[in-house]
C-alpha cells in the first residue's frame, strides 16, 4: 500500500471544537477524532484527518464541542425508580422513615434491572458514559450495564445487617468475590468494594475489605463524613472521627474513593493528599439533604483528586452531570470565598478525567487521547442559551444544559444520534417505570 494511501478506520468525528481535558485547559478548533475498533487513534486538524484517514463513517459536527464522556463517580442507579419519593427531609429521616422501608419491600433483581435501564437512558441523553455504581444485586446491575453497552464500575456491597442480597457477613463477602470474578476481563464492567459507611460497617468487615482490595487490586467506594451527625456519633462511640478510624484500619490509601466528605479538618485534607485518596463531591445531593459543604477548593489546592457524582435520584433528583459541574463550581467559590476557585476547566476535569482516575480507569477513559477508549459526547452550543460564545470551557460549565447533548459514543459505539437513543426502547423503559411508580407509591402511603 502506498505511503500516501489513507488508513481505513471505523469512524471520523469532525467538530467545531474539541476539549480533550488532557492537556488541561486546552481547546482545539476544527479538529477531528479518529476512531477504530473502539479506540481513539488520533486527534488532529480536520484537513489533516481527511488526508490521513478513510473512515467507514464520518460525523460532521459543525456547531458542537466534542468532549470526553462524562463520568458519574457516585451513583445508586436502581434508586432512579425512587426519584421524588421522599423530598425535603434530613438524611436520617429520609433513610430510616422512607427509603429503607420501601427498599425492604421492593429490592430484588427486577427492581435493580429496571432502575438501571431507566438510569442508563437518562445518563446517555445527558452525555454521561460511565458510572461508579453502589447498590445491591451487583450481579444484575453489572449484567444490565453490559447488555446496554454502558461503562460502569459496580460496587460489591457490604453492610452489617441482612438484606435481600445477603444475610450474613460471610455471604456478603462470598457473593462479592463471585461477582468480581464474573466480570474479570470485561470490556465495560469492572468492580470495586462498596461498604456502605463507617456507621454501618464493622472494623472486622473493613479489615477483610482492606486485605481483599489489595489482593484483587480494586477500589473501595465508601460514603464517609457525609454529615456532622455521623462524625459526632462515631466520636461518641469509638473516640475517633470516622476518617481516623479508617486510617487506623489501613483503608486511607490510593484505592479509597471517599464520597461526600463535607466534614473535614485541614489535617484530614492533607492526609488525603499524601495517601492519594480520591474524593467524590456530590454538591446537589448534599445541598438537598442539608448535609454540609465539601471543601472542594481546599482539597483541589492540596492536590487531592476531586471527582463529581450525582448520588442517587432519590436524593438529587437527577443524573445531570452538567448541572453537577455548575453547582460544584459555584458552591466551591462561595465556600472558599474566592471567585477564581474551582474554575470551569477544572469543573470539566472533575466530571471526566478525575472520575476516571478515582475509579482506576484513567488509562482507558476520561480524556480524548490516542490509545484511550472512544467514550465521547457531542454538545451543540449554537442554541440561543449558549450564545454568544467567547470561552468554550466556561460555556460548558456555566451555561450548557444536558438537553444540548446530541451524540454519544461508548467504546466507539454510537449510543445517541441526534438526541435519539440508538438501541434503547424508551417506551418499554417508561412502561416498566410507571408500573413501579404504582407499586412504590402504595407501599410508601401505607
Automatic annotation (TrEMBL):
The lineage of its organism: Bacteria, Pseudomonadati, Pseudomonadota, Gammaproteobacteria, Lysobacterales. It comes from the Bacteria. The keyword Metal-binding applies. Gene3D superfamilies: Metal-dependent hydrolases (3.20.20.140), Urease, subunit C, domain 1 (2.30.40.10). Signal peptide: none annotated. InterPro entries: Amidohydro-rel (IPR006680), Metal-dep_hydrolase_composite (IPR011059), Metal_Hydrolase (IPR032466), MTA/SAH_deaminase (IPR050287). Keywords: Hydrolase, Metal-binding, Zinc. The keyword tRNA processing does not apply. Residues 65-413 form the Amidohydrolase-related domain. Pfam families: Amidohydro_1. GO terms for molecular function: deaminase activity; hydrolase activity, acting on carbon-nitrogen (but not peptide) bonds, in cyclic amidines; metal ion binding. This is TRZ/ATZ family hydrolase. Belongs to the metallo-dependent hydrolases superfamily. ATZ/TRZ family.
